[in-house]
Amino acid sequence: MSTRSQQLPELGQDSGREYRLGIMGGTFDPIHYGHLVTAEQAREALNLDLVLFMPAGSPAFKQDRTVTSPEDRYAMTVLATAANPAFYASRFEIDRPGVTYTVDTLKALRAHYPANVRLYFITGADAILDIVSWHDAASIASLATLIAATRPGYDIEQAQARIARSGIHFDVRYIQIPALAISSTNIRDRVRLGKSARYLTSESVIGYMHKNGLYRMPVPEG
Ligand code: ATP
Ligand code: MG
Questions:
Q1: Which pTM was predicted?
Q2: In sequence order, which ranges of the chain are alpha helices (DSSP H)?
Q3: 120-175: per-residue pLDDT in tens?
Q4: What is the CB neighbour count within 10 angstroms for residue 210?
Q5: Class at the top of the CATH hierarchy for domain 5-9+15-181
Q6: Domain extents in the chain
Q7: Which among 24, 29, 35, 150 is the best mutation to test ligand 1's pocket, defined by most ligand atoms within 8 Å of the CB?
Q8: pLDDT score at 151
Q9: Angle between the 70-81 and 203-211 helix axes, to the nearest 10 degrees?
Q10: Whose CA is nearest to atom 22 of ligand 1?
Q11: CA 218 to ligand 2 centroid distance, Å
């Protein structure tokens, strides 16, 4: 059973001050320490009151492979974020039917929260390079400040140049986080090959993956 409270937490109650809401979107198939470190350091750098982790329902970019069920991806997101009081795992996107576009989520958040709540959309370096080509990028730019997590030594000029060429005014804050080459793809590959995924994500997520047989090689028929 999903309830409204599992979709969006309350924020902005005191109209006398500004609140900062971070949004960390992703497939989270599975969530890993790269996502968690990025969100935590974005929270700290930009003084975010809360970071929403929103597993995508039907990711716009990943129609080409089988994605783990939304409920499993959400459950792992809950487990991985549970101990951080500033993190909130949201069912918002998985409870919506169809393809998820960032712009629709941001519009819905804007309509839901009062004007003293500012929106900060957190992305990794790979995503910021593409953002000008996302669906309705101009509206994304008008709805949220972007926090782009880069690695030390990462060349942000290419992303900056692409954004400048688009003519869209994005407010982008670049933050450097420690080099973490962890990806969900790598974790899935490791599990499929029977290798260890320990210390790439939380023990709770690892336990969940194994208990539910996620990412295991399909048993050949016959
Ligand atoms: P996949 O390998 O399946 O593409 P992923 O590890 O890239 O998965 P996503 O769910 O696609 O994870 O990513 C969600 C968001 O997290 C994106 O903005 C992405 O740029 C960012 N991200 C992913 N991995 C890292 C990492 N190691 N460090 C910082 N940001 C990351
Ligand atoms: Mg990715």
A1: 0.92
A2: 4-7, 33-46, 70-81, 102-112, 125-130, 137-143, 157-166, 184-192, 203-211
A3: 999 988 788 889 999 999 999 999 999 999 877 778 888 899 999 999 999 999 99
A4: 13
A5: alpha beta
A6: 5-9+15-181, 183-222
A7: 35
A8: 79
A9: 150
A10: 124
A11: 23
